[in-house]
Amino acid sequence: MSPYTQLVMNCRLSFVQVDTPTYWGALADALLAIVLKALDDKKAIVGLVYHYSNEGVTSELFPTQARRPAYSVLNKQKMKETYGLKIPHWRNSLEKMIKEYYK
Fold it and tell me: Reduced to 3 states, what is the DSSP secondary structure of residue 74?
């Protein structure tokens, strides 16, 4: 197992608050996929609200002053179905970000 994978796998989690962090690179990949699909198929441009965040859960280890509901995950099903996106788990995105940072 790579040191990066070990770092990611050793992250401690507490599931008091359910949330999904998002790596900007994963969001950029999703936006690029949407643009390419729209260029290929003009019907793919749908003027609706879409939600995007990495998959998986995290916790209050990232405290905020704002009070949040216990379950505050965005529903990404419409984004997945409309654009055929495979959204990465947040741990995979974290590992990718760490590898890019330490290049």
Answer: coil
Q: How far apart are CA 27 and CA 102, in angstroms?
A: 20
- 86: confidence class by pLDDT, cuts 50, 70, 90: very high
Where in the sequence is the domain holding 53, given as residue range(s)?
A: 3-101
H or E stretch at 98: helix 90-101
pTM over 0.85: no
Residues 6+ apart with CB under 8 A from 80: 86, 87
Closest to 53 (Cα-Cα) out of 29, 27, 14: 27
Q: What is the pLDDT of residues 34-75, one digit of tens each?
A: 888 878 877 666 667 778 888 876 555 556 677 766 666 678
| Overall domain count for the chain | 1
